[in-house]
Amino acid sequence: MKKYNVAVVGIGLVGTEIVKVLRERDFPIDKLRIFARSTREEEIAGEKFLVEATSIDSFDGIDIALFAGTEGAKGASRQYGWEAVKKGVVVIDNGDDFRMDERVPLVVPEVNPEDLKKHRGFVSNPNCSTIQMVMALAPLHRISPIKRVVVSTYQAVSGSGSKAVQELKDQINSYVSGKEMKNEVYPYQIFSNLIPQISSLKDEFPGYYGEEIKMIKETRKIFGVPDMAITATCVRVPVFNSHSETINVQFEDKISVEDAKKALSEFPGVKVLDDPANSIYPMPLDATGKDEVFVGRIREDETAPNTLNMWVVSDNIRKGAALNAVQIAEKMIEMELV
Fold this sequence. Notes:
- This protein has eight helices and 13 strands.
- By secondary structure, it is of the alpha/beta class.
- The protein starts with a strand and ends with a helix.
């Protein structure tokens, strides 16, 4: 098997997880290099790595570059991505700088791998909340086209990076010790609270925050349905890891609960946990560290025709970021696109 020189750009939560996933999946690596803002040594899963300060020359001889988009590296692909492509590198970007760029495929490998054929050296990883939603919607959309989606998210603090995780830990400790809580990452205390704001307001969709707009626009692009009716409300919750979503989806034709469960169970990367009588349903604690997107609470919405409700949970750092990026690279190798 051919082996590849691989670079991971950014070594925060997502970059670290990418390195773990590459090792776990025995990715065909010749040389693995890690780039970040500064040179240092990092230990990941018991293995020590030299982290190199990033420059455009760093990408000489690299075949595949996985941009993690963490550790303050937002915009790293904007600075280095297309320049790396000029050097013959295939760039897979976890950041949001080029997701809606018409030159760039936006791919979840189980859902729209055919879009990889259109790549020009640059592929984008969708937003974490989008990835788990389209994984749950895709097998049903193939049975009957989607008419409308209403999604509400419950997003863990790991989605904001390691500083947010630490902030929640610090606030818990402050609560236990009776000290004043401090918040820097979020506009308000996140412990014992919910914040219905992720990103900032955008003129394009009045009243909608950026995360909600990402879910709308990215889902339309992935499914190739520019006018798909989607509305989203995204909420940050005091959970360390794994995002949860309630999805209300209306189809052109009726899909029974039984057929939905069967289609979801047979779809790669999805696991159905749905036995509400015995309190069996997906939860963030169970999803953390797992590759699958978990779906449960599948039921008919009796207030609207041809409509189902679902509860969807997934590790946002893994399938929502690192794993999906590595799977894109694996699929491109399989399709002989690298």
